[in-house]
Design a protein that fits this description.
264 residues; nine-stranded mixed sheet; two-stranded antiparallel ribbon
């Protein structure tokens, strides 16, 4: 084996060992999410130039997609974002809505979507995109368990992200977590939005986000509200008014229902 090849293999092994080390927290660039408790657990925020996994809980693909869009908005606010989707994801979940992403705070002019025919093509496309240091983030959306997305593939994505400085966000639908080199792993569910003002059509997106893996720190679970205008996560605002309890007995409704039956 040539000296150059031996040196290259040694360097790669060293990088992998550093990635897989569970010791001290590495000196990683981070971006604050805005949610105080989550940022404290993450030692300042989400690590850049790393791989992060987001899993949808049950039939929560829309919630997981919105959460990933929020993460992308934090790590790549003014740089291009590449979103790679397996074709089957669009069949199961529908197409991405540019107007919806715009309402979440993303700039559709900086978004490039790529449809891949299968998992292998999606992985290769994401790896190629991660090699482009002009990007801010790459989202890889894969449906199902996807045996190709194993520990070896995860290592390759992690090395590519570290080399270019581009953050990788893996969106997993209908899948169970498996061993990987991801910096964090989240399981996302929908949470209730607080009551909105009368002049608004709906409340802010709110997520039940559970951090189940953190390579260099503790885990946790929080209710996180996404502020679409400021592109920040935060703790949901408290309900400004008390909610009236549902009456246990409504005789006036029963009487009205009886009159309607007699009239019919």
């Amino acid at each position: 084996m040539s000296t150059a090849r031996t040196r290259t293999l040694a360097n790669l092994r060293g990088r992998i060992e550093r990635i897989e080390t569970h010791g001290d927290t590495p000196d990683l660039n981070k971006v604050a999410l805005g949610h105080a408790a989550a940022d404290a657990t993450l030692h300042g925020g989400l690590a850049l130039a790393a791989v992060h996994e987001v899993f949808a809980e049950g039939h929560q693909s829309a919630s997981a997609t919105g959460f990933v869009a929020g993460l992308a908005g934090r790590v790549s606010p003014r740089r291009p974002l590449v979103w790679v989707r397996q074709d089957f994801s669009e069949i199961e979940s529908g197409a991405l809505s540019l107007s919806g992403l715009c309402e979440l705070g993303l700039d559709p002019r900086l978004l490039v979507t790529v449809r891949a025919p299968d998992t292998d093509a999606a992985l290769q496309t994401a790896a190629d995109a991660l090699a482009c240091d002009a990007l801010g983030a790459v989202v890889l959306e894969v449906w199902g368990q996807a045996r190709q997305l194993d520990l070896v593939a995860s290592r390759k994505l992690t090395l590519a992200a570290a080399a270019s400085g581009v953050t990788a966000l893996l969106l997993r639908m209908a899948a169970e977590p498996r061993p990987s080199t991801a910096e964090t792993r989240w399981i996302v569910r929908a949470a209730h939005s607080p009551p909105s003002a009368p002049w608004t059509a709906w409340g802010a997106p709110v997520f039940d986000a559970q951090l189940v893996r953190h390579r260099h720190g503790p885990v946790g679970r929080w209710i996180m509200e996404w502020n679409c205008d400021e592109c920040l996560f935060s703790e949901p605002a408290s309900y400004p008014q008390p909610l009236a309890a549902t009456p246990a007995h409504r005789p006036h409704q029963a009487q009205a229902f009886g009159q309607q039956r007699r009239a019919g």
